[in-house]
Design brief:
The protein contains 27 helices and 35 strands. The protein starts with a helix and ends with a strand. The chain is 41% helix and 19% strand. Bound molecules: nicotinamide-adenine-dinucleotide (NAD). Nicotinamide-adenine-dinucleotide binds next to helix 9 and helix 10. The site of nicotinamide-adenine-dinucleotide has 27 residues, from helix 9 and helix 10.
Length: 772
């Protein structure tokens, strides 16, 4: 036998990690995972089991939190919050201590995570735990910098946080670290299958000097989660399935609670014929077999360029055969167990129900394991190409051209992540902005870091975790919002016209003045009951036409900031030329003398957003890789806006300025009581080179149009500044496509520029490792 033979025939010996300490830790604490409330363990009961999925053994009993226990935890958090919010630098020290203690307990945390989830110890040790620690260090820094870097921001208050079972400790960190850093207190509910590392974390909090009530953990299942959603919290931060995310959106609608949703995905993994094939195969091992494919951003849809497909599949199958599956505590294991037999059954059923394509599976041990699976020859519309499987199953298809790759990649209701593999940097960077997703990895996959935003678009949810952008979800501008009183439209007994010509203002759709579909209009009077004109009453069909016009104006989103700036300046200039006329109109509509000031403010606002149009820069994040992570600001898309009806002109200009400056297309519903300043504005738009469809203006009752706006599948975000009570209905109806909503709950405040810019953009993180 020569050396080569020895290498080729050598097998792996077992290298199991000892779980003795982790088991002893559980035993020492009575074998029960339960509530950590106000700094103490309370009401512990063995209501159900948490098991080691690799063996089926019971690890510990778990307490199922009741409504009363959730309320108790929220009350503790509420009481602790003001003091915790006071001293940002003291928070930084405590968070730093948490990070240090996690480092000290890294081994215990990794082994416990593996016992509870079935993930390979190699992953828990080298990925979950280090990333968790990095998150606390990084956010300790954000606490240190809060007063100087975010002087206008303050904490939301008490945050309810609900997390899934696939990365129990890491998801805990993603939720708790930014919340604490910004001065919030938290009540976190771990997933029912995996509460154990949260227990160690609670103990670390005590040892790090976290004051009682600042971090509360309540264990339980979906019912406990539902109780937390209902409780007296200021925000719900949820990571989990799209179905539960939708439910929570409906439950919290109109409550005034802030919400962030990090949901499912079906992320494309695109391999071009010039890619480094071996790297792309190795990348796939990470993309779909990391954590057994139980990863929200798993590259579960493989798109291979046709010419190399056969060769690529052959290499991939050979690699699949070499994957080692088994005891997750063994350091030589690549793939561990599926988290629970229920999840295993779900994967098994989904694959068994598929009749399309060809299925290739490598082997798996007996028990709660599912073999690495590749299904080739699928059509983009096949169920397994569309539905999230959340297991080690890769669905594959082929494409011919880059344009086709983009088309297939975007043919999904999700939008979390995408990977692009090519040696052609021009091609990769051309594709990155075209892919509809929150994250793009170039020649890489599953890269994550505390400094870079993580999160999706479409049904993958909204909000970002990590980076400066993640902090927005845990802060609000300082100061109180004022109550908005609905303005009353003037009425008349006789309807005598102020002007003998009866003018009926039409709608403004696709750059044209259009009659309303229903053919109805409403009279508008001045204070002394004289008729000023009629305003059209838009209905659902008019809204649909406006959405079509917005969608047809996609070119605006690709235009340069420089061009958008010039057009905004031009709008301001044209308004300035007719300032006196607009001021008089506003005075006539409102019966006040606010006209001149409002027009001046509108011109200033337009000039400000013209200035910002080419200055809302992205960022190159300081991530610990050889390469860059670019945070690119992209427009949200089509935005529906219910305007502030107390200010006939500024109600329109305030949201229109930032929205179109950042490249969005809008449909705005004008002030219901005073619509005629917005309809006069059509002429300003017409003479200012605004492309058709970029700004569409409807008139009519806000309450009638709001639900249709929120339910429309081609509107990407809805904003409401209306005095009408439409916030609840907008949030409830927005579940159709899980669009972003920004509603006022009947209040009004002057938003800082940073909020307008954040609401007008999506941050896409593009990871570009470099080096040969
Ligand atoms: P799940 O939605 O069933 O459960 C997630 C959490 O919500 C658990 O803690 C659960 O107890 C709780 N829950 C269940 N019903 C609830 C209700 N009615 N009200 C409140 N809380 C409730 O999801 P899962 O099966 O645990 O996790 C898998 C899903 O999570 C996948 O779809 C995956 O894509 C997603 N995920 C997303 C991300 C991300 O960052 N986008 C990260 C990890 C997982």
């Amino acid at each position: 036998m020569n050396v080569r033979d020895i290498f080729e025939t050598m097998d792996y010996g077992p290298a199991p990690e000892d779980a003795k300490d982790a088991r002893a830790w559980i035993e020492d604490r009575g074998g029960i995972a339960g509530h950590f409330i106000n700094g103490t363990w309370s009401d512990l009961r063995h209501d159900f089991d948490t098991k080691n999925p690799a063996t089926g053994e019971v690890l510990a009993g778990v307490t199922k939190g009741t409504d009363a226990e959730v309320a108790k935890a929220v009350a503790a958090a509420r009481k602790a919050q003001p003091k915790w919010a006071k001293d940002a630098k003291a928070r930084a020290k405590i968070m730093y201590a948490i990070a240090r203690l996690m480092q000290k307990n890294a081994r215990l945390l990794a082994v416990m995570e593996t016992l509870d989830t079935g993930k390979p110890i190699r992953e828990a040790r080298d990925i979950d735990v280090p990333l968790t620690i990095r998150h606390f260090y990084h956010h300790a820094g954000f606490a240190q910098l809060m007063d100087s870097a975010l002087p206008d921001a303050e904490a939301l208050g008490v945050c309810g946080q609900i997390i899934p079972w696939n990365f129990p400790l890491l998801m805990l960190a993603w939720k708790i670290a930014p919340a604490l850093a910004m001065g919030n207190t938290v009540v976190l509910k771990p997933a029912e299958y995996t509460p154990m590392t949260a227990m160690i974390f609670a103990e670390i909090c005590t040892n790090a000097g976290v004051p009682p009530g600042v971090v509360n953990i309540v264990t339980g299942d979906g019912e406990t989660g539902a109780a937390l959603v209902q409780a007296d919290v200021d925000k719900i931060a949820f990571t989990g399935s799209t179905a539960v995310g939708r439910l929570i959106r409906e439950e919290t609608a109109g409550s005034g609670k802030a919400l962030s949703l990090e949901l499912g995905g079906k992320s494309p993994y695109i391999v071009f014929d010039d890619a480094d094939m071996d790297s792309a195969v190795e990348g796939l091992v990470d993309a779909i077999w990391f954590n057994g494919g139980q990863v929200c951003c798993a590259g579960s849809r493989l798109l291979v360029q046709e010419g190399i497909a056969d060769r690529f599949y052959a290499k991939l199958k050979a690699r699949m055969d070499a994957l080692r599956m088994g005891d997750p505590l063994d350091k030589c294991i690549d793939i561990g167990a599926i988290v629970d037999p229920v999840q295993l059954q779900q994967i098994t059923d989904m694959v068994a129900a598929n009749t399309a394509g060809e299925t290739y599976q490598s082997g798996a041990p007996e028990g709660c394991f599912y073999p690495p699976t590749l299904i080739t020859g699928l059509a983009p519309s096949d169920t397994l190409m569309q539905e999230e499987i959340f297991g080690p199953v890769l669905a594959a298809t082929t494409f011919r051209t880059p344009a086709e790759a983009v088309g297939i990649a975007n043919n999904t209701r999700y939008g979390l992540a995408a990977s692009v593999w090519t040696e052609n940097v021009n091609l990769a960077l051309d594709l990155a902005p075209k892919l509809v997703s929150g994250i793009v990895w170039i020649n890489a996959t599953n890269l994550m870091d505390a400094a870079a935003g993580f999160g999706g678009v479409r049904e993958s949810g909204f909000g970002r975790e990590g980076g400066w952008e993640g902090l927005q979800g845990y802060t609000r501008p300082k100061g109180k919002a004022a109550k908005l009183t609905p303005p009353a439209a003037f009425t008349s007994d006789d309807g005598t016209p102020a002007d003998p010509l009866d003018r009926t203002a039409k709608l403004y759709i696709g750059g044209k003045q259009t009659r309303p579909d229903g053919g109805y209009s409403q009279p508008v009077f001045n204070k002394s009951g004289k008729l000023l004109g009629h305003a059209s009453i838009a209905n659902r069909k008019d809204l649909r036409n406006a959405v079509e016009a917005m969608s047809a104006a996609k070119g605006w989103s690709k235009s340069t900031g420089h061009l958008r700036a010039q057009i905004l300046y031009y709008i301001g200039e044209n308004l300035s030329a007719r300032a006196a006329e607009f001021a008089a109109r506003i005075n006539a509509l409102t019966g006040t003398k606010q006209g001149t000031a409002e027009v001046e403010a509108a011109i200033d606002t337009l000039f400000t957003w013209a200035a910002w149009a080419d200055k809302h820069d992205g960022a190159a994040k300081g991530v610990p890789i050889r390469g860059v992570a670019l945070a690119m600001n992209e427009p949200v898309g089509n935005i529906g806006i219910l305007t502030d009806d107390t200010r006939p002109l500024m109600g329109l200009i305030d949201p229109m300025g930032p929205a179109i400056a950042m490249g969005n297309r809008i449909t705005a519903v004008a002030s219901e009581a005073f619509p005629l300043a917005a309809t006069d504005f059509y002429q300003i738009l017409d003479t200012s080179d605004v492309p058709a469809g970029v700004v569409n203006i409807l008139t009519g009752p806000h309450a009638d149009l709001a639900p249709h706006m929120a339910a429309h599948g081609n509107i990407d975000a809805v904003w409401s500044f209306s005095s009408a009570d439409v916030s609840g209905v907008i949030e409830a109806k927005s579940i159709s496509n899980l669009k972003r909503t920004w509603v006022n709950n009947g209040t009004s405040r002057e938003w800082p520029s940073s909020t307008w810019r954040a609401q007008s953009t999506e941050v896409k993180t593009i990871w570009i490792p470099y080096g040969e």
